[in-house]
Amino acid sequence: MKKVTAYIDTVLRGKMDEGIGVYNFVCEYVASNGVMYTTEEIGAYKNTTNNRIAIIATIRALEKLKSPCDIDIFINSNYVAETMKKKRYIKWMEKGWEKVKNRDLWERLIALDRKNVVKYEYLKTNSYTEYMRSQIQKNLTTLNYKEDKGSDS
User: What per-residue confidence (pLDDT) applies to 115?
Assistant: First the structure.
């Protein structure tokens, strides 16, 4: 199983639920010959929240994997890291997702999580943070902002 490391940084600009959520992630993989490969993605959503953009970024990083992997995810969202690490979603599912926000995204993330061996860690900053934030800033005017049509119910 390939070993991958993902660094995810998210930013919300503007008001909650009306803000522009921007994410950037970098995934690293070292091939058997010792060569390191990286891939990255920047994305943006209108009318979103901090939590939703963090879950979306994590989903997008996992969707980049071409086969099941052993992946360490370092993300600046304690909400995502702790929810997945402590498997809080199990109780949510047992209770029929009662009063859980972002169910649409959590279900997608859980499905991707189950296809891989994932370790989640909250990390406010990492070795790529400065680079990722400069990329976000550089691309703010040219990003294709998608409408976040998910539900918070």
Answer: 97
Residue 111 to residue 46: CA distance in whole angstroms:
25
Give the whole-angstrom CA distance, residue 127 versus residue 131: 8
**What distance separates the 2 farthest-apart alpha carbons in the chain?**
49
What is the b/e burial string over 45-73, where b = at least 16 CB atoms within 10 angstroms of the residue's CB?
bebbbbbbbbbbbbbbbbeebeeebebbb
Residue type, position 45, single letter? Y
User: So what's the pLDDT on residue 153?
Assistant: 40
DSSP character at residue 114: H
26 is written with which tokens?
């970098």
Strand partners, 97: none
Tokens representing residue 70 in the block: 């052993």
Share of the chain above pLDDT 90, in %: 67
Q: Which two tokens stand for residue 78?
A: 């304690």
